[in-house]
Amino acid sequence: MKILAGNSNHPLAEAIADHLNLPLTRADVKRFSDEEIWCEIQENVRGEDVFVIQSTSYPANDNLMELLVVIDALRRGSARRITAVMPYFGYARQDRKSGPRTPISAKLVANLITVAGADRVLTMDLHAGQIQGFFDIPLDNLFASPVLTSDIRNKFEGQKLVIVSPDVGGVARARSVAKRLDAELAIIDKRRPQAGVSEVMHVIGDVKDAACILVDDIVDSAGTLCNAAGALKERGAASVAAYVSHGVLSGPAVERIANSPMSEVVTTDSIKASDAVRTCAKIRQLPIAPLMAEAIRRISEEKSVSVLFD
C-alpha cells in the first residue's frame, strides 16, 4: 500500500500516513507558468495499491484537476488499484438540475474521476447521498458523526442537550446525532430568499434553557448557522454551538462566526484551515486522520468498512 498526498490538505495526508506507519509516496506536483498542472510520481508504483488524498475544496477547480492528473499518472505508472480519498467532495451541492438549462456538476465530476482511472472513491459525509449512484465504481461514504458526537459528549456532559437541524433537509443527520447522544431534537424551518442569504422562520421544538447544538454537513458562508443561533437565543437557549463535518468557511464566514451568539463552531479537518480560521477563537477542528486511516487499512485488506459505524 502507498499513500500519496495532493496539495489541498497536506497536514491531513501526513497524519493519515503516520497512523498507518507509512511514509508519503514522493511525488512532484507543480504548475507551469500558464497554470497548467504537471505531476511526476517519483517512486515505483507498478502493481501497488495506491491511495491519493485530495479534498476538492477551495480552490476547487485547481484541486480537482490536480487529483485527475495524479490519478492519470498513477494509471500510466501501472498502479494495481487507485483509490481517490476525498475527505471533502467538492461540487456535491450541484447534485440535481436547479433550472431548465443547468448542469448536474456532481455527476460530471464523478465521470471525470472514473475516466481518469480511479478504481474506488473514499469520502466523508457527502452532501447528497445519491451521489454514490453517480459513480460506476465503488464509493465508500464515511460518517463524521462518531468524531463529532464524542466531542459533544465530553464537552456537554450533564447539561440539558438539544440537537438542532438548521433546516428541514438536515433532519435525518441531526436525528442520528440526537439518537447517539440520547438528546432531544429541534428543527429550524427557514426560507432562503436568494442564494447565500437565509432567513429563519420558525423553531420546532423546546430549546428554552438548553445547550443547543446545531448539526450540519457544510458551513460555507455561515449565514444559516448564525441566523439559526440568533433564533435559538431569542427563544431562550442557554447556549448555542455548531458541529459541522466540513468547514468550507468562505467569504464573510469567519467574521460572522466571531460576531455571532454561538460559543463555538467545531468542524473536522477535512479541509485545511486558512490563517483566518486558525486565528479565530470560536472555530475549532477535530482530527479525522484516525477514521480515514482505519478505512484505508480496511479497504487495502479487503475488510468491511461499514463495521466502523455499527
From TrEMBL:
Positions annotated to bind ATP: D34, E35, E36, R93, Q94
Catalytic-site annotation from UniProt: K190
Limits of the Ribose-phosphate pyrophosphokinase N-terminal domain: 1-117
Biological process terms in GO annotation: 5-phosphoribose 1-diphosphate biosynthetic process; purine nucleotide biosynthetic process; ribonucleoside monophosphate biosynthetic process
UniProt keyword terms in alphabetical order: ATP-binding, Cytoplasm, Kinase, Magnesium, Metal-binding, Nucleotide biosynthesis, Nucleotide-binding, Transferase
A UniProt-annotated Pfam family: Pribosyltran_N
Positions contributing to Mg(2+) binding: H127, D167
Cofactor(s) demanded: Mg(2+)
GO molecular function, one term: ATP binding
Principal cellular location given in the protein's record: cytoplasm
Catalytic reaction list: D-ribose 5-phosphate + ATP = 5-phospho-alpha-D-ribose 1-diphosphate + AMP + H(+)
Any one of the GO CC terms: cytoplasm
Pathway info: Metabolic intermediate biosynthesis; 5-phospho-alpha-D-ribose 1-diphosphate biosynthesis; 5-phospho-alpha-D-ribose 1-diphosphate from D-ribose 5-phosphate (route I): step 1/1
Localization terms from the record: Cytoplasm
NCBIfam families per UniProt: PRK01259.1, ribP_PPkin
Function of the molecule: Involved in the biosynthesis of the central metabolite phospho-alpha-D-ribosyl-1-pyrophosphate (PRPP) via the transfer of pyrophosphoryl group from ATP to 1-hydroxyl of ribose-5-phosphate (Rib-5-P).
Subunit (UniProt): Homohexamer.
Protein name: Ribose-phosphate pyrophosphokinase
Annotated organism of origin: Thalassospira lohafexi
